[in-house]
Amino acid sequence: MPKKSGSMLGGWSFLIGVILALVFGLMGNLSPGVTYVLVVLGIVIGLLNIANEEVSPFLMSGTVLVIVSYFGQGVLKSVTIFFVTLQALTMLFVPATIIVALKHVFTLARH
To answer: What is the DSSP secondary-structure string of 16-42?
Structure first.
């Protein structure tokens, strides 16, 4: 969810990132350019989109999504559409989850 006082860029990045991950996954095409776009959107999501009260739920759901997507790729490798879709979602959520976790660790270290 977007920060209440923050920019709409984070909210739009989240929405666009998930839609792009699904679209490119369903198309079965994850070129290097698409991968870079998803990673950059993931970084923007992590930097701008998560308010302090949303950190714990985001980290929990983001971590579960990354783990399940990663293991799901192995299980669904023979079904290309699902494999690439899970790969695209992983490309989006790994950087977002890492950024939010790092921001949270620095916040905890300050207190």
So the answer is: HHHHHHHHHHHHT---HHHHHHHHHHH
